[in-house]
């Protein structure tokens, strides 16, 4: 591990702090450290030193490891805390773990500190990555919820993997009902298998394909939908599914049909009226 780690050490014995640092370096960790003894200095170091790892003595004359642990959990819960002590018993060790310590190491067994620290850092990195992924998913979900068009994704077996709030409104199926279901069961497209295959072929040829299709609401009502679909792929270029943005144009189509009907009726009335007959005779 080439990255320099900032290690905050709550310890009142300099030689014990040096021994802990030696154990970390022997495990292959590159570290820079700050040793403190009081609560005031410890709190300041949480902000100014911004540690990646904290080693805290269980018991100090003016401060103690569990109090330090409580401060870390309130201020910087992502930083792993290892309780290091020469006198901690089994009950105290279990208590520290229950309260949120990552692990504990006896000073009489300094060889354990390096492996324990490496595991604690790896677990902290995994938690950060998981939180970033969860935050990204939450952001995407919030963004999808704001979009007024139905956003639907399916995998390469056409099972639904994404279904936003607008899709719930348009089709009447909740996300809980739609996710994991086959798209043909939910969308019930009027496309024939041959027409569906043609659409998929055009999606791959054009990378973005816009088309109109009749689908059905959960209650059976037909919906004329304008769909824009793109293929999804992995890092090797293999298709993993499809993402589509669907917009209900049923009302627009009905309005167009009403307008066309009105124009045809007007034309028929005009052609049959005496005025039109006189105009034609001239």
Structural features, described:
By secondary structure, the chain is of the alpha/beta class. Residues 277-282 have low confidence and may be disordered. 49% of the residues lie in helices and 24% in strands. Strands 2-1-3-4-5 form a five-stranded parallel sheet, sandwiched between helices. Helix 1 (14-26) crosses helix 5 (113-146) and helix 2 (39-48) runs parallel beside helix 3 (65-75). It is elongated. It has eleven helices and ten strands.
At a glance:
The protein has 282 residues and is of the alpha/beta class.
Strand line-up of the largest beta sheet: 2-1-3-4-5
Assembly annotation: single chain
How much beta, percentage-wise? 15-25%
- Secondary structure class reads alpha/beta
Distance between the termini: 98 Å
- Helix percent reads 40-55%
Mean pLDDT: 84
- Rg for CA atoms: 34 Å
Query: Would you count the extended β strands for me?
Result: 10
| Number of helices in the DSSP assignment | 11
How would the global form be characterised? elongated
Query: For the report, how would you describe the main beta sheet?
Result: 5 strands, parallel
Residue stretches low in confidence (pLDDT < 50, at least 5 long) are 277-282
Helix-strand blueprint:
Elements: E1 4-10, H1 14-26, E2 30-36, H2 39-48, E3 53-57, H3 65-75, E4 81-85, H4 90-99, E5 103-106, H5 113-146, E6 150-155, E7 160-163, H6 165-171, H7 175-178, H8 183-187, H9 193-206, E8 209-216, E9 222-233, E10 239-248, H10 250-272, H11 274-281
Parallel strand pairs: 1-2, 1-3, 3-4, 4-5
Antiparallel strand pairs: 6-7, 6-10, 8-9, 9-10
